[in-house]
Write a structure and sequence with these properties.
The chain has 7 helices and 9 strands; from the N terminus they run ββαααβββαβαββαβα. It has about 210 residues and is of the alpha/beta class. α5 crosses α6.
Length: about 210
């Protein structure tokens, strides 16, 4: 199976996608190479992939109560992980993490939100924080229309299947079962303590698989 060359929009260098990635995602072309993705993450956070303990030591900003979720994939698509932590008054109540050898960033973000919902009873009031605006909009805005249209989405004049449909449906169904739970966006890699912690959990989930 052939590899595929692409040009990174950030550094302008020509990079190569491995044959196994091309075979699994034949139409995908990344915008940035992995080196630039890693450099951007280090620049935005001021650190290189802290552990959960280091995240607690370094960061204090952000909400102190809620459920915090994150997912990542390196490369994207590739090996990824997800993390979800429930916090009350700045203390961990429960946490979960996991990973997959071949996945995408969006799938891991959705999986983290799903696991956060599963920490709650149906009548609880709580807030789930995600740094993925795509996942936030999927659950709170777009899924209702996709469901009404038979789980297809409009792309111009075309009608296309919803990507990651099984995870989208599960997350949306859980949202309906938890009407008192809000989902809010929280900026990622911006020094918010429990977002940083969830990011570290997602990396732990990948290493533990």
């Amino acid at each position: 199976m052939p590899t595929r060359d692409y040009i990174c929009e950030a550094c302008g260098n020509t990079r190569t996608l491995p044959a196994q990635v091309v075979g699994k995602y034949p139409n995908w072309v990344p915008k940035r190479c992995q080196d630039c993705n890693d450099d951007g993450r280090r620049a935005s956070t001021g650190r290189d992939k802290p552990s959960t303990t280091e995240a607690l030591q370094r960061f204090t900003a952000g909400p102190k109560t809620g459920l915090f979720t994150d997912g990542f994939c390196e490369p994207n698509p590739g090996r990824g992980g997800w993390g979800a932590v429930r916090v009350t008054n700045d203390a961990v109540v429960e946490e979960r993490c996991g990973g997959e050898p071949e996945t995408t960033n969006n799938r891991m973000e959705l999986k983290a939100i799903i696991e956060a919902y599963k920490m709650l009873t149906s009548d609880e009031q709580a807030t789930i924080y995600t740094d993925s605006q795509l996942c936030l909009n999927t659950i709170t805005k777009w899924a209702v229309g996709w469901e009404r249209n038979g789980w297809v989405r409009k792309n111009g004049k075309k009608r296309e299947p919803v990507k990651n449909l099984e995870l989208v449906r599960e997350a949306y169904e859980l949202a309906q079962l938890h009407p008192s739970v809000r989902i809010e966006w929280l900026e990622g890699h911006a020094g918010n303590r429990w977002n940083e912690y969830a990011d570290a959990l997602s990396r732990k989930g990948t290493s533990d698989q």
